[in-house]
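We emphasize that the prediction below concerns an isolated chain of 183 residues; any contacts that depend on oligomerization or on bound cofactors are therefore not represented. The input was used exactly as deposited, without trimming of termini.
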Amino acid sequence: MTIDPNEAAASLSDVASVERRTRETLVYARSSAALILWGLLVGAGYVISFLEPALHYRHWIAITILGFAGSFLIHRRRRARDARLGELLLYTELVLVGFGFVILLLFWPVAPRQLATFWPILFMLGYVIGGLWLGRFYIYCGLTVTALTLAGYFWSGPWFLPWMAVVNGGGLIAGGLWLRRLR
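Result of the prediction step, given as a C-alpha cell string:
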C-alpha cells in the first residue's frame, strides 16, 4: 500500500497537532500549583494593603520571598526535563522583577495606586509572552487580568485594592484551578 504525499503531509500534520496539544496540557497541569500559590499570596497582599495601609508595602517583601521560595520548591519537585522548564520560568520571573525595578527607578516617584497597577501588568506581560510558547491559556489569562486591572485602576475608586485582590489574586487562583481541571 502506498501513501500519496498529500496523505503523508496530512498525517504528519495531525501528529504534530496532537504533540502540541499534549505538551500544552502537560505544561498547564504542572503549573497550576504555582498559579494557586501566587494567587493566594497576591490576594492576601492586596487585602493587607487595604486593611493596614500604614505597613507601606513592607508585607509585599515577605509575600514576594514566600512566592519565589514556593515556586522554587514546586518546580524542584518536577522531573529533570520539567524542572528545567520550571527553572526557566522562575528565572523569567526574576528578570521581570529586575526590569520592573529599573523601570520604577526611572519613573520614581509613583503613586501607590500606580505601583499597585504596575506590577500585575508587568507580570501579565510575562504571561502573554510565555503563552506564545506555553499555550493560549497564558495569553488569555494575561490579557484578561490586565484588562480588569486597568478597569479597576480607572473606575474602582477607593475599592481598588479589594478589586485587585479579587482580580489579580482570584484570577490566578481561578486560572490554577482551571489548569488542574485540564489534567
